[in-house]
């Protein structure tokens, strides 16, 4: 009997111990914390940490499949960050649109390398081995840095970050109207249009008030003097213009008078020439008769001179012959000229 009772008691005790151990181990396993990520989330408040030291940043979106494929590789790269002496961070573009505008992110995922405030775009694959080689072999030195207005720390990109943050807030507000409150999308668009107009009017009013505050009006006596001076200047200008116009008119009249006088003189000259031509025409018949009478006489004298010249040429020496021949040529030329003149005047 005693041996039969001890067996069940022992089994019961063993079962109680096992259940107690299982109950103690279960809460311990449930309380065990998950493995902590070494990737630092970057926001608009702590992004300036990347200005010191060496960093690698990843821009992603929760809905992006390509971003989800590189999550495990990025976590592995962050675990080895201490060995590589580099810090690893990530930026959610949905939650931080300002940072996506500051880095001018247009594709996802996007990777950036930062070394002491100098930023470079990493365009390789998001695989751990490639990322590790990029840091160990210092391949980032061959990449052109983002300098000038392209730098995320520049004033231009700060303004871009502000615009992106405003657009992100507007997008969240639109989703709140359409999804949470169930308002139609066109009603949301009308609301934003009206809000934009009101905002523009308010900004214009503020600018007018600021200009009125900084604008100092002139005293009355100074304003009256300025008006009088302006009037006097205008009157002087008008007088100068009138004088100039009168001078132009006078010069034009003088030119017209001179041209008329010149025309009259030319007409008188033409009249005198006509009268002289008429007198010449009247004298031409009488001259023609005289010329006809003189032609036989000239021919006779020419013959006599030729007869006189022939015996003289035989008596004189050879050097004198060219002179006499030149004289005869001169006489013949004069006779020919006279005949031509008579022939012209005859008709």
UniProtKB/TrEMBL annotation:
Keyword Translocase: no
GO MF, any single term: disulfide oxidoreductase activity
InterPro entries: Thioredoxin-like_sf, Thioredoxin_CS, Thioredoxin_domain, TMX_domain-containing
Position of the signal peptide: 1-25
Major subcellular location class: endoplasmic reticulum
Membrane-traversing stretches: 189-216
GO cellular component terms attached to this protein's record: endoplasmic reticulum membrane
Location(s), subcellular: Endoplasmic reticulum membrane
Regions of compositional bias (Acidic residues) in chain numbering: 244-284, 310-319
Record-given protein name: Thioredoxin related transmembrane protein 4
Organism whose genome encodes this protein: Rhinolophus ferrumequinum
């Amino acid at each position: 009997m005693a041996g039969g009772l001890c067996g069940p008691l022992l089994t019961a005790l063993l079962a109680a111990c096992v259940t107690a151990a299982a109950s103690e181990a279960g809460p311990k396993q449930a309380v065990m914390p998950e493995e902590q990520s070494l990737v630092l989330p970057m926001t608009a408040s702590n992004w300036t940490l990347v200005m010191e030291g060496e960093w690698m940043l990843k821009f992603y979106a929760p809905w992006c499949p390509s971003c989800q494929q590189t999550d495990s590789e990025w976590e592995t790269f962050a675990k080895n960050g201490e060995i590589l002496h580099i810090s690893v961070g990530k930026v959610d573009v949905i939650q931080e649109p300002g940072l996506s505008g500051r880095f001018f992110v247009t594709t996802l995922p996007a990777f950036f390398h930062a070394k002491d405030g100098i930023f470079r775009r990493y365009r390789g694959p998001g695989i751990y081995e490639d990322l590790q080689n990029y840091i160990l072999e210092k391949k980032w030195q061959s990449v052109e840095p983002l300098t000038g207005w392209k730098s995320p720390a520049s004033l231009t990109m700060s303004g871009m970050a502000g615009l992106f943050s405003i657009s992100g807030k507007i997008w969240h507000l639109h989703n709140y109207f359409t999804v949470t409150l169930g308002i139609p999308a066109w009603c949301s668009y009308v609301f934003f249009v009206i809000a934009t107009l009101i905002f523009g009017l308010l900004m214009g009013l503020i600018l007018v008030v600021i200009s009125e505050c900084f604008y100092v009006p002139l005293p009355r006596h100074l304003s009256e003097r300025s008006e009088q001076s302006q009037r006097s200047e205008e009157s002087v200008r008008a007088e100068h213009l009138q004088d100039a116009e009168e001078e132009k008119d006078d010069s034009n009249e003088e030119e017209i008078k001179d041209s008329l006088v010149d025309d009259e003189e030319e007409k008188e000259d033409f009249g005198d020439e006509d009268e002289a031509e008429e007198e010449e025409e009247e004298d031409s018949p009488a001259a023609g008769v005289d010329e006809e009478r003189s032609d036989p006489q000239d021919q006779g004298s020419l013959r006599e001179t030729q007869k006189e010249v022939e015996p003289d040429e035989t008596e004189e020496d050879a050097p004198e012959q060219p002179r006499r021949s030149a004289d005869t040529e001169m006489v013949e030329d004069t006779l020919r000229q006279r005949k031509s003149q008579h022939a012209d005047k005859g008709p």
